[in-house]
Amino acid sequence: MNTQAIASHDSVAASTKSNGAGGSASYGRMKTPGVDTTHGAILYLESISVVFDGFRALNDLSIDIGVGELRCIIGPNGAGKTTMMDVITGKTKPSSGTAFFGQNIDLTKMHEAQIADAGIGRKFQRPTVFENHTVFENLELAMKTNKGVKSTLFARLNSTQRDQIAATLDLLRLMGEHKRPAGLLSHGQKQWLEIGMLLMQEPLLLLLDEPVAGMTDAETERTGELLNDLRGKHSLMVVEHDMDFVNQISQGGKVTVLCEGSVLAEGTMQQVQADQRVIEVYLGR
Ligand SMILES: Nc1ncnc2c1ncn2[C@@H]1O[C@H](COP(=O)(O)OP(=O)(O)OP(=O)(O)O)[C@@H](O)[C@H]1O
Ligand SMILES: [Mg+2]
Predict the structure, then answer these.
(1) Mean pLDDT for back-to-back runs of 10 residues, the chain (285 residues)
(2) What is this structure's pTM?
(3) Whose CA is nearest to atom 25 of ligand 1?
(4) How far is the C-alpha of 118 from the C-alpha of 105, rounded, in Å?
(5) What are the residues whose beta carbons fall under 8 Å from the beta carbon of 279, sequence distance 6 or more?
(6) How far does the centroid of ligand 2 lie from the alpha carbon of residue 80, in Å?
(7) CA of 213 to the centre of ligand 2 (A)
(8) Is 223 strand, coil or helix?
(9) For ligand 1, what atom is nearest to the CA of residue 84?
(10) DSSP for 110-173?
(11) For 30, 121, 137, 220, which has the most beta carbons within 10 A of its beta carbon?
């Protein structure tokens, strides 16, 4: 183990290559290595049901997410939005139905760690950054732990890796904060940093559950800009209650409305907001 700990630049680079990552060079192109997306979708959920003690949290739910799409998911409390993300990430196994990553990867047969390795990243509501480490170190740790380097204690970054971190800091607009301990960041900045940590793993599909909860208006708007920057570079599924925010990021794309564990409506924000069934479930809250 100690010999691995004293990793040279070369072994870090080799490890990076063997994991199929192209560093910052691959950033900006929506390639899906290992995931068969020839039919245009990155995720297929079909007739998924999740039953907890007789209660159907998901009920015959079917949804597809396109490659590079930013899909917004809305719906009243208890609609099953988080449960759907639990199924995609392997935290909850469906009682019935199929969940495929591309056409070839059956998510229902995999553990959470395998699903993360396959390229699905998930952001939970509360930020979980390493408070005592700097912003830069947080991104560095996120990158190395995912390239299979067992201990990074004595390893130094190569220039490609430094560039990748710099590009991510830029994207997050945290360049000026890179030496600050993450614990000193605002709530919004911590959330962005955590999104950045997920990005260091170069996920093909990123799931965000209520990313702007607790943020100021300015932070919310900035988060919308950030997600718009990611559109087309990653596939994204964003669950949110903040309708102004959903409006900002949906940009004429598809919004899916969940209710009682199923898809109630799907269409542009304008279409779903005009849908009588959607109006009724929101008024009935
Ligand atoms: N582990 C569990 N055991 C039992 N019931 C559960 C479990 N997880 C979720 N549920 C129930 O399933 C339903 C769907 O919950 P879920 O958290 O997916 O909703 P949600 O759409 O994310 O709601 P919110 O907008 O409030 O976050 C709820 O009625 C919830 O109480
Ligand atoms: Mg939820």
Answers:
(1) 34 32 38 86 97 96 96 96 97 97 95 94 86 95 62 68 93 95 96 95 95 95 96 94 94 95 96 94 74
(2) 0.86
(3) 77
(4) 9
(5) 273
(6) 7
(7) 11
(8) helix
(9) 18
(10) S-HHHHHHHTEEEE-SS----TTSBHHHHHHHHHHHTTT-S--TT----HHHHHHHHHHHHHHT
(11) 121
